Each structure stands twice: as C-alpha cells, then as structure tokens.
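User: Hey, my collaborator sent me this sequence without any context and asked if I could get a structure. I don't really work with proteins. Can you help?
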Amino acid sequence: MMNEEFLRNTFAKQTQAEAPSGRALNVAREAMRNVLRETRATHPVVGALQEMVYDVNRVLSRFGDFIQGPTPEPEEPEIKLSPFAYAKARILSAGAIIRRGKVDYRVREGYLAATHAGDEIITEQGQLNLTPFAHQDVLIASGAHAKIEAVAQTQGNTQFDLRIVLGRAVSSITKSLGQDDLFLVRMPTAQVQAHGTEFVADVISPTDSYVAVTEGVVAVKMGEQEISLPAGMELHAVEGEKLEAQAIPDFSPGEVYLAKAGDTFAGLIRQFNVNSYRMSKANPHITDPNSLLPGTMLLIPKSQLN
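Assistant: No problem. I've predicted the 3D structure and written it out in structure-token form, which is a compact way to encode the shape of the chain:
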C-alpha cells in the first residue's frame, strides 16, 4: 500500500517548488497525476485517491487563478474578473489589446474585462470604455495607448490614475468626488486632476498635450505651472511654453433640440457626442428612448467637441 512518505517525497521531487505560485501549482498538479499513474497498477486505493486529488485539484486551480490572474492562451485569452480593485473595461468596437506584464490579451468587441494597476491599453482601430468606480467613465479613443497607474479604494475613498502615452481619452465624472478622492490623468507634458466634470485629454506628441473642458472645472499642471480650466475652455500644454487657456470655438454648454422623424436617443447621443448618463438626466420626460415623436423637445447637455 502506498505510504504517505513516498507520496510526499515524490511530490516534492517532481515539483521542486517552495512557494505556492501559479506556475508551481500547475507543476504540482501534474506531479500528483504522475504519482497516481505510477502506482495505479500496484495499489488498489488509487481509485479513491484519484477522487480526493480531483477535489484538491479544483481548489488548487481556483487558488492558482486567484494569485496568478488569467492564463495566457494562443488565441483570444480571457481576462478574468478579480477580487482586487479594478477598472471595468468594455470594448466598444473592433477589439483592443490589454497588456499585462509581457502578455498581450486581445479582447473582442462587446466583451467586458477587468483591468488592474500596471495594465496597458492599446485600442488600435477600436474603442474602449473604462469604468473605475460608479459615476466615472473614460472613453479611450481608437489609436490610443494608455496605462493604468492606480485604481484603488481605501476607507471609502477612491483613487484612479491614468497615464496617456498617445491618443485621446474623454473623461466623465457625473458625481462630484470627495476631498480625499483622486481622479488623475497624466500626459507627457502635463497632468489633469478633476473632482466632477467632463473633459478631453489628448496627447498629440511627446511635447504637446491638449486639454478641453466641457463641464465643470479641472486643474491642469505642467512643471511649476498650474491653471484652473473651466467649461468652454481649452489649452495646449507645450513643453517649454506658458500655459494659456482660450475659448473653445462654437462651444455651448447646452442647447434645445426638437426631435425629427426617425430620431432615437442613441442616435442623438452619437450625433452630439454626449454622455448617455447626462443625456438621460437632462431629459427625464423621455419615457421611450427608442421612439421619439417629431417635435419632442430635448436638452442636449453640451455641443459636439471636435
């Protein structure tokens, strides 16, 4: 009959693992299978042990996923949800790449993924919407490259720190943050901090960053310079130059629109580049967003920003 000491020695010899890392656990599972194969012919209790190992294997698998994260696969690997703080990433069109360490996960359109601090997002031809916490959304446009520096919640306070390497991100915070909350967008030449607003951050080049505010006010900092940028204003943060704000051409904080035949809520949101949450809040009288009667009056929260 197979003694416990033999099992332990064989297990240790084949795994050669001292810490319960995700890789070590996978090796350990294979070692257990090898031990059972070698003793199948001579030990009648193997069948019972196999059932026990099967149960242990399920536990190890769950624990391995917990500490290791998603296991890379040759095609379309899955980004799994996590018990740790993360920003939900919904892929809106054409797919996107989430880079975690040295592994690239290609996520298809319509999928929902969990992104953590340290993850990089490369949209290529697609678009991706990040939701770090309730009432916070960041639309990462196509052709962009961004990195999540921090996403955390401690003692009721939220922290979100996003670095844009290239391209455009449109941020919307529809509920004012607390004094100890942080919502920070970093660019090569400047950083933007907001507490409740809508703004665009666009990295044009390593030496030129663009910021425009459509609602509320943000603080823009470049080196020792810092400026408050209110709604309807924009600026270029160019390395070596002074921060100067100017009015956004043809900007309006809101406008009245009369629905035409064939209009839908979703179509107007796309047409006017409006945040869907704010569009709904501004028009509580709309009961059926899929069927707007011609002549229905709607409030467009902000005009289109080009």
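In plain terms: The chain has three domains: 4-68, 87-247, 255-300. You can pass these tokens on to your collaborator as they are.
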